Amino acid sequence: MQIYQAISQREAQTFTTAQLRENFLIETVFKNNEIHFVYTHYDRVVLGGAFPIDSTLTLGTYDNLKSEYFLERREIGIINVGGEGTISADGESFSLSKLDALYIGKGVKEVTFSSTDANNPALFFLLSAPAHHTYPTRKMTKEEASPVSLGTVETANERTIYKYIHRDGIQSCQVVMGLTVLKTGSVWNTMPAHVHDRRMEAYLYFDLNAEHRVFHLMGQPQETRHLVVANHQAILSPPWSIHSGAGTTNYAFIWAMAGENLDFTDMDFAKIAELK
């Protein structure tokens, strides 16, 4: 499990493009027939992907965690961005179609991942954080996620937001997860930009054609930087950083957070005219 150290805004101001990519971009999230994780010191979050093609994958523990099993002191949120798949949690099976989500609470010992069709395998994005309480395992389909349409054609950000794990949805200790799907002709996400000093955030970009890219904006509102991101790559966003961007075509992305609260609306906005 690769470890990402916490980086301050002062450090980030001096970074080259290569250093920014090394510290904030996760280039490989999904590996064939593997569960692949990274550990970040931002709120002790572990994130990655489970990519079962023709075998069943079992969630094991890691030396980094010093735990008997992965969810001994943790919770995990999961969103499927691929084909039909199944997750088993202590013997209870959950079938997840594309854009369905599953939350598994602290104390579940055995978790497995499998795909229904090896020719169209599931792609499970995973985000885990320390947990102080046990909440029940719960599935939510994209239709149940209270989809909300936002944005306009004029500002090139027509999009649909799906909220799964948050204060008014699936209950958790500190994980918050959902996703955004941009409509054809729209490219901007999360604009006006914002920060939330009370929690970190991660983005997974998906449904982006191989020849296209997203220009992800990060940094303090008056000290912005950018990272060029490809399909199925993820961004770590520190609490001091904005997280926004524009693509060369429309796309979708998962937003996943952990930290001080579960309020989706906890955002400190930065006016567009004040960005630098």
From TrEMBL:
Zn(2+) binds at H194, H196, E201, H243. One of its GO terms (molecular function) is 4-deoxy-L-threo-5-hexosulose-uronate ketol-isomerase activity. Keywords: Isomerase, Metal-binding, Zinc. Its cofactor is Zn(2+). It is an enzyme of class 5 (isomerase). Binds 1 zinc ion per subunit. Gene3D superfamilies: Jelly Rolls, pectin degrading enzyme 5-keto 4- deoxyuronate isomerase, domain 1. The keyword Iron does not apply. CDD domains: cupin_KduI_C, cupin_KduI_N. Its EC number is 5.3.1.17. It catalyses: 5-dehydro-4-deoxy-D-glucuronate = 3-deoxy-D-glycero-2,5-hexodiulosonate. Pathway: Glycan metabolism; pectin degradation; 2-dehydro-3-deoxy-D-gluconate from pectin: step 4/5. Signal peptide: none annotated. Catalyzes the isomerization of 5-dehydro-4-deoxy-D-glucuronate to 3-deoxy-D-glycero-2,5-hexodiulosonate. Belongs to the KduI family. NCBIfam families: PRK00924.1 (NF002091). This is 4-deoxy-L-threo-5-hexosulose-uronate ketol-isomerase. It comes from Arcicella rigui. The gene is kduI.
